[in-house]
Amino acid sequence: MKFEVLTIFPEVIECYLKHGVVGRALNKGIAEVKVYNLRDFTTDRHRKVDDYPYGGGAGMVMQIEPFYNALRHIKSDGIPRKVILLSPQGRRFSQRIAKEFYKEEKTLTLICGRYEGIDERIKAFVDEEISIGDYVLSGGELAALVIIDSVVRLIPGALGDELSAEEDSFMKGFLDYPHYTRPEEFEGMRVPDILLSGDHKKIALWRKKEALRNTLKNRPDLLKNLSAEDMKILKELCSEINK
Ligand SMILES: COc1ccccc1CNc1ccc(C(N)=O)cn1
User: Fold this and answer.
1) What are phi and psi of 223, to 5 degrees?
2) Atom of ligand 1 nearest to the CA of 133
């Protein structure tokens, strides 16, 4: 899986790519990220990337030319890619979209805006506009890293233990179950006995029930098209809660 990032702060992207799952995946060569500094695609002495907005108003707008020059340079290899603009106006990103991007296997070219945004004419060169949530950030870089991280985790071999990709609860559409590790007791709080029992069937059932409990509490909107088995567990849960 290949990613390309267009940004005026390449170091913001590069420092994140040195660590953890993404860092290892890049070292293993199962993913590749190329970061382009927009200022390298300017033509003036001051390497300007923004200018005053037509129509007045506060703030600055990023100019189209550096983006256009960078995209023309990148696209000259003729490889198919999906050009994504990160912005608060975009389609809402989710695990489902991460899987969609992974399966499409196209290079993802991520455009990071700063200031008040980018000249609207950038849309002529963008395939998709994506938002990671309903909030305004100082730049698209964090959103680009969210997309890179969530998609890289889906590549076989990216996570040490293959199972944990599948096991990721969002992969199943629910919130996660509680996790515990040593010590067995901390400040009077004990690890649930079931997890010390070694009975893997019971543990799996407990985890599914706790995932449903968390989902019911915080994201009931995710509780749709449940399997008969999950529905049975949920009913059990509801009768417990309503005791
Ligand atoms: C005013 O900022 C912009 C305006 C337009 C484009 C890009 C930016 C850069 N900022 C971003 C980017 C993405 C998200 C998100 N929710 O995905 C939030 N902020």
Assistant:
1) -85, 70
2) 16
Distance 131 CA to ligand 1 centre (A): 7
| Ligand 1 neighbours by CB, cut-off 6 Å | 86-88, 113, 116-118, 131-133, 135-137, 139-140, 143
**Ligand 1 centroid from CA 66, angstroms:** 18
Ligand 1 atom with minimal separation from the 146 CA: 17
For ligand 1, the distance from its centroid to the CA atom of residue 167, given in whole angstroms, is 31
- The whole model's pTM is what? 0.94
> What are 162-172's pLDDT values in tens digits?
556 666 666 57
pLDDT in tens, 154-211: 999 999 765 566 666 665 789 999 999 999 999 999 999 999 999 999 999 999 999 9
**DSSP-derived secondary structure letter, 118:** B
Structural contact between residues 143 and 131, judged by C-beta atoms closer than 8 angstroms? yes
Q: Which atom of ligand 1 is nearest to the CA of 90?
A: 17
Q: What is the 3-state secondary structure (H, E, C) of 173-217?
A: CCCCCCCCCCCCEECCEECCHHHHCCCHHHHHHHHHHHHHHHHHH
- Tens digits of residue pLDDT in 46-73: 999 999 999 999 999 999 999 999 999 9
Angle of CA points 155, 90, 225, to nearest 5°: 60
